[in-house]
Amino acid sequence: MELFKKILIANRGEIAVRVIRACKELGIKTVAVYSDVEKESLHVRLADEAICIGPASSAQSYLNIPGILSAAEVTDSEAVHPGYGFLSENPHFAEACATSGITFIGPTPENIRVGGDKAKARQVMKRRGIPVVPGSDGPVSSEEMVMKVAKKIGFPVIIKASAGGGGRGMRIVKEESGLEQAFYMAQREALAAFGNGELYVEQYIPEMRHIEVQIAADSKGNTVHFGERDCSIQRRHQKLIEEAPSPISTEKFRKKIGELAVKAARAIKYRNVGTMEFIVDTAGNIYFMEINTRIQVEHPVTEMVSGVDLIKEQIKLAAGALIEYKQHQIKFHGHAIECRINAEDPDRFIPHPGKITFLSLPGGPGVRVDTAAYSGWTVPSHYDSLIAKLVVHGVNRQEAISKMTRALDEFIIEGIKTTIPFHRKVFSHPDFVNGEFNTGFVDRINGSGKPGSTGEETQ
Amino acid sequence: MELDDLKGLIELLKDTDITEVQIEKDGNKVKIRREKRLSSIELTKPVVVHEKPAAEPAEDIQKLVTVTSPIVGTFYRSSSPDSDAFVQTGTSVKKGQVLCIIEAMKLMNEIESEVEGVIVRILVENGHSVEYGEPLFLIEPVQ
Is there a catalytic annotation at residue A294? Predict the structure, then answer.
């Protein structure tokens, strides 16, 4: 079938490189956009064409909808791939693309709206009989409402921002006395970070696993899943290490959680590629948490165990291709783990941009590195600190761990501080090696001392 | 070896593919090496949307004000195909005077001069696309 002739990648860094790679393999011409401080970046070099769309600040460049649409127009790009972050979950952008006659590679604007309203997504799923984390039925607009919910489901609870993400606008409330402050702090933070102070409440499950399922759906509603990913190694709700399959997964578990994910996708008529996030408690109960209506950072681990190229799937589905294969034809092999390497101090996770004076990437069988870094490149300070994803694949988890340990030793980045030492610490920790970890793991091995900590636990 | 000699050498090397050169003269040894990024991989440079013409050495660039594009779009010298261009080389312009239109997403954006002066060069052809920061005009400001 006829795919697009030219795609504009509305993103930067490693994901822009990733999308350009998929396009090149599909014979599609690529257009990179960049801010005026990123002229020397790798995604600009690899694309067929490149356009500067604004100054360094994200708001004026990678979030600049008119600038990006104008760039698509002057280059005759037929489609835009939004990557992750930036405009990928902005329903206005998705709509603006449609209005301009440009295909947005991703789900529908309505899917994005539902996904972006976490309180609403919970309600929709609950109504469809999908188990959700116990909590408020929709948003809460006052501390009294939070109190009512807390009394019903019991403390501790967690107050979250409806429009939120990345761990901001969240506060754990251990008991009644902490409620008022938590409510107002969460609201203020949500308003500042997302322009929307709406909150909802969930039961707080301290020893939980964060397990998500990759799904894809075509225009006819054929929906499949590509298995689960365990993303429980997090710090302040930011994922650091992800793996597929989950160490606690069995064929039965995967079938169960996979079917729930497909059901959830059908419930909102989801289109294209996306992820359903769940929380699994120590008893193995699965609860829906939220939907991610975009390709995710950790998509490589699913690619490594299933053999699918998720970016190519996104492009094909956006061009109108149908999912010809059936669920039972999707097979999983071996075990994959990803470490996110950030330009940060490995102990306190403070961002550390600067010039990479020497870079040597690991290699060998079963090792994949997704990065836009190169020797001599200056990590800009204006954007996120992710500089590379180190992904390994082994026949089983043990082999994957030994490969990751070896690859982390081979990875040399000089000139800036990175979180590689942190990852080395994790991979030598018995709890991680035994698969016994949950979202409390990082704080346990690192101590809770965080820069700029408000003194409250965020989890 | 004098500083001027070194400067001359470096200038000479700039336009070549030479990556390392070592010179001995009167007992002095000098080695000049070019740092290469992404060495040993020939990456085709992307086609920038618009080819930027090299400025002629005749102009004293230091004195001139460069008007750059604040947006991505298509550059037009006049408000419509039938009307006259807003400015030509040699036109005197006042601060706030419209120099050109950049069309983006069907919206016409008037680009105004920030200075009073004379148009020395027009750097983009009518109907060509421009990116953020792209030089459009060189203006010699009045003192």
Answer: yes
